[in-house]
Each structure stands twice: as C-alpha cells, then as structure tokens.
UniProtKB/TrEMBL annotation:
Pfam families xrefs: WS_DGAT_C, WS_DGAT_cat
Name of this protein: diacylglycerol O-acyltransferase
Reaction catalysis annotation: an acyl-CoA + a 1,2-diacyl-sn-glycerol = a triacyl-sn-glycerol + CoA
GO MF assignments: diacylglycerol O-acyltransferase activity
Length: 487
C-alpha cells in the first residue's frame, strides 16, 4: 500500500493551507500533547502501536508542501518511523518542573518540514512512570480531531478485546461536546458561510485597509457578512504584560488536577455550566497573576479566542480542520468571583446565538485561497483583538491504557497565532479536570504562578456557595459580603 502511494500528491484544503502558512518562529503551529503514565512504557511497543494505529491514517505518512500557487500533501518516500519516535530522559530530579521545561523546549522547537510534521517523545523516568509527548502540526487536523487520534491509540482495559473501539465507550452521542448546544442553530448556515468565503477574499483587503467599509457592511450586509464586519470592528484588547512583542521560547505549566464532580455540583448550584465555572476560574487566575505583578486590571476585560468544533464528534477522526473561533470575554477586572462567573456565563449564552464560529471558518478558507501577503495583515488584525487562546475539551471519564499501561493525566495545548502569546487548556479525564498554560517566555516568564491560582479561584467560588442560603438564588452581592467577612 505504501509503495503504491509513493510520491502521490493530494491538494490541501484551503483551511488547512491557512494553518500551514500561519507558521512563524514566534508561534509554531504545533498542537502539543502530554500523556502521563503510572508505569514504564517500552519504546519498541510504542513504535509498534503507532505503526498499527497512528499510521492507519495515511495522512501521517505525508509531508505538507507549500508553494506560491497553493499547498499539497505528498507521500514521504523516505518515511522512517524511528525518526518520528524519540526516547528521552529528564535531568536532575526528573519531576514536574523538569518535565514542564522539557515540554516547553519541544513547544519552542520547529518540526522538520522536509518530513511529515509530527513527532512523539517517550520519557522513561517520571515519578515512577513514563510520559509520552506528542507534537503534531495544526495543518493535519484541529485540536479535537487530534485529541481523538491520540485517544484512538489507547484502550479501555489493560488487555482489551481485539478491535475494541474507544469511541463506543466515550462518545455515546454527539451531545458530548461542550459547544454542541451553541452549534445547533449555527450549523444550518455552515454551507452559506463556506460559500461566503470566496466573497470574503474579494473584499478582505479593502476591509482591512479601510474600517469604514466594514462599518458599511455591518449596517447593510446579510447575516453572515455582517457578523464578519462586526468581528473586524472589535476593539483591540487592552494592553497588559500578557500582550506585546513575542520571542521564540515557550514556557508551559499545569495545575494539579481537580475533581470534576465538585465542579459539576458547583455549576448546578449556581445555575451555570461546567465550562462557565472553569473559564471563570481561569479569568481569576490571570487577574491574580497580573495584580501580583503590580498591574492595575480593575475594570478590565480581555478576550480569548475559543475554537469551536463544527462537525459531529464521531467525524472528528477524519482529520482536517473543521472549526471556527469565537471571541469570549474574560472579566479579569472583576474582583467578585461570583460576578466574574455571571459575566462569563452571560457571554457564553450570547455566543450560542451568534454566527462567529461559522464566519471565522469561512475567513480561514478565504485566507487559504489568497496569497500569503494577505494573510499576515489579516492575522495580525484579528490577533490584536484577543490576549489568549482558550480550549476546553471533555475527555473520557474512565481509565485509559496505552500498551497496557494506565494513563494518569492528560494535557494538550493548541498553538497561538499572530501576536497572541498565551494559551489556556482545560481537559477533563477520568473524573478530574486538568488545567494548563503555555505562554511566550517574554509574556509569561513563570506560568506556574498562573496555574497555581486555578484551584484557589475554584475554592473561593466553592466557599461562597457553601456559606450562602441554598434555598434561594445565590447573588453576586451575597458573595461580596461573604468575601469581605471571611477572606
């Protein structure tokens, strides 16, 4: 099969082309994943597994080739699995800080574009177990699809039945996606948005150079084009130390996992979603970090671009990029944790009725059609409107095994684009929530100072909830009084 495909070329989709061309030394377009294990991994067994399951996707034998006239996939006739699977050992105490530093170095190192753009690193000495770090270029697929690819390498038992499929035990139905309710009204306009992509390209340069044109479109255009114009007219995000010139070094950190059931219980008590609670905690963590640096953030709101899946979950393993982006407001200037949660929840409800995700998918397609000279100013225009990228993926709520070894923890980060220098990642697995941050070293020199605050922010919300009267609605004003009296 491989020999028959040798040298074969296949046109790359316009959206995938856009992600390929977004690569910059300051923001590499890699999705980085970390899987921690309870016991030792055997590198030979990992290679065999990847050969059987990962390479069952023919795309991962292909190189991404970019040319002035477009991009295409080309089968690598010199494919060598040994080059793509590396074995490493952590220095010193081989503990969390050493692993975070190692992952940060990998996230700062570009993949070799003369080969298929992915690599796995097996770390043999970590807390009595092992770690598998994956790096895969965004042009192969979006984050949700690649998380599913990674999970397809695992089993639900140490010695599974042959051909057992994780998808049957994890994805019971499409509704498992935290964004699904948002997408139901939006997906009806998906075809229209993709068609609009060609029209977007025709008008993009004029809109970027003259905001008044976007204002006219916002007043007079149809629903989809009006949403695009409104996105173009968003104000730039306020200046904090999280925004500014980027370097080429990334830092990563993650918090100790939290019990998912506690988050669910809190969400039910406060009448909001798990997603609302977690993103409000992330907002509080960023607020505390900036205040400790002496920055005045009171009254300030920053935005996160949030990837939104635009296909049924069971189709995610088909690879490719099929998602849009929405701008979520993070009220870091709000001191009251409950009021902060209320504002996040309100913004989420508003986004559910918008077409932002559909519009940005069409925009990415338009950028993939056009010359790279157009992409840079368009990318910079949109990246100025946000400070961070935030992802929240619901993973399987049961133990997973890879080559018979149990997975203890999961974490991943999608790349940031343009001048955005911070990425937040929330992933739930086996009854626990994992929160991580990746940041440009110039913007976040100590990401552990942010991630350590995540649990503290949750504990504040929990304290407020436990001390209020559950017989009536818990209001932000009640929380203010509780905080002043107890904290």
């Amino acid at each position: 099969m491989f020999e028959a495909d040798a040298g074969r070329r296949e046109a790359m989709s316009k959206v995938d082309t856009a992600w390929l061309r977004m690569e910059r030394p300051t923001n590499l377009m890699m999705i980085t994943g970390v899987m921690m294990f309870s016991g030792p991994l055997v590198p030979a067994a990992i290679k065999q597994l990847l050969g059987e399951r990962f390479l069952a996707y023919p795309r991962f034998r292909q190189k991404a080739v970019n040319t002035p006239s477009g991009a295409h996939w080309e089968t690598d006739v010199d494919f060598d699995l040994d080059w793509h699977v590396r074995v490493a050992a952590l220095p010193g105490k081989a503990d969390k800080i050493e692993l975070e530093n190692f992952v940060g170095e990998l996230a700062s190192s570009p993949l070799d574009h003369s080969k298929p753009l992915w690599q796995f690193h097996v770390i043999e000495n970590y807390r009595g177990g092992s770690v598998l770090v994956a790096r895969i270029h965004h042009c192969y697929a979006d984050g949700l699809a690649l998380v599913q690819v990674m999970l397809s390498l695992t089993d639900t038992a140490p010695h599974p039945e042959k051909e057992a499929e994780l998808v049957k035990t994890w994805l019971k139905h499409d509704g498992g996606n935290v964004w699904q309710r948002m997408l139901e009204p939006a997906q009806a306009g998906l075809g229209k948005a993709l068609k609009v992509g060609t029209k977007v390209y025709e008008k993009m340069t004029a809109m970027i150079n003259d905001p008044s044109i976007a204002a006219d479109v916002a007043r007079e255009g149809g629903e989809i084009t009006r949403e695009l114009a409104n996105a173009l007219l968003l104000s730039d995000d306020p200046q904090t130390s999280l925004k500014g010139p980027l370097g080429v070094i990334k830092r990563v950190a993650w918090a100790e996992p939290m019990p998912l059931e506690e988050v669910k219980t809190l969400g039910r008590a406060l009448g909001c979603t798990v997603n609302d609670v977690l993103l409000a905690c992330a907002s509080g963590a960023l607020r505390g970090y900036l205040r400790d640096r002496g920055e005045d953030v009171d009254g300030m709101t920053i935005r996160a671009t949030v990837p939104v899946n635009l296909r049924p979950l069971e189709h995610a393993k088909k690879l490719g990029n099929h998602f849009g982006l929405v701008f979520l407001e993070l009220p870091i200037g709000e001191a009251n944790p409950l009021r902060r949660l209320e504002r996040v929840a309100a913004c989420m409800r508003e986004l559910k009725s918008s077409r932002q995700a559909i519009v940005t998918l069409g925009l990415l397609g338009a950028l993939g059609m056009g010359p790279q000279a157009l992409q840079a100013p368009a990318l910079e225009l949109f990246s100025r409107k946000a400070t961070t990228v935030a992802t929240n993926v619901p993973g399987p709520q049961q133990p997973l095994y890879l080559t018979g070894v149990e997975v203890n923890e999961l974490m991943f980060w999608v790349p940031q684009s343009g001048s955005i220098g911070v990425g937040l990642s929330i992933l739930s697995y086996n009854g626990r929530v994992h929160f991580g941050l990746i940041g440009d070293a110039k913007r976040v020199s100590d990401p552990d100072a942010v991630t350590a605050r995540f649990a503290e922010e949750f504990e504040k919300l929990l304290l407020i909830t436990l001390m209020e009267d559950w017989e009536s609605d818990i209001a932000a004003a009640d929380a203010e009084a509780t905080l002043q009296h107890n904290l």
